[in-house]
Amino acid sequence: MGFKRAGWYSYDWIDNLGKKSATRIHPEWQDIHSGSKVPGGPIDFKAAIVEAPHSFVLLIQPAGKIGQRFCFTLAYELRDHPQGTRLVTRMRASIKMPGGRIAERLLAFGDGIMVRKQLTTLAHMVCR
């Protein structure tokens, strides 16, 4: 995943500036570990937790004083399920500044729309 790489499998016109998300696995993008940089557009993510093939957590937490007031994570987990495998996602944001609670709710709402599209895109890729 990542901006101008495999994409985010969501609405490419928003997340990847119109470049289509990958439809196949690119071996050159598979060497990722905790601490790796994942391009996110104007701000890069850090791969905070990589426990392949089960857990992948991305983090944005700027350095300095801003980082003490802002934190954003995206988590993906594969879980065994009687009918196969379930992909579970979670987004969390903490914004400790004026209007932060409202911004957190707006991020959660927007991310919910984007993640739903991401999951349906991935399901169609896997189940075709």
Tag the structure with descriptive keywords.
five-stranded antiparallel sheet, 3 helices, 128 residues, single chain
State the domain count.
1
Quickly give the structural class.
Answer: alpha+beta
Helix segment tally: 3
**Whole-number mean pLDDT:** 86
The count of DSSP E runs of length 2 or more, i.e. the number of strands, is 5
| Run of helices and strands | HEEEHEEH
- Measured between the Cα atoms of the first and last residue, the distance is 20 Å
Spans of at least 5 consecutive residues whose pLDDT stays below 50 are none
Query: What share of the residues does DSSP label as strand, in percent?
Result: 25-35%
Fold topology:
Blueprint: H1 12-15, E1 37-38, E2 45-51, E3 55-60, H2 64-69, E4 70-81, E5 84-95, H3 100-126
Antiparallel strand pairs: 1-2, 2-3, 3-4, 4-5
Characterization of this structure:
There is one protein chain. By secondary structure, the protein is of the alpha+beta class. The chain has one domain (12-126). Helices cover 29% and strands 30% of the residues. It is built from three helices and five strands. It has helices at 12-15, 64-69, 100-126, and strands spanning 37-38, 45-51, 55-60, 70-81, 84-95. It has a five-stranded antiparallel beta sheet. A hairpin with a 6-residue loop joins β1 (37-38) and β2. It is globular. The two termini are 20 Å apart.
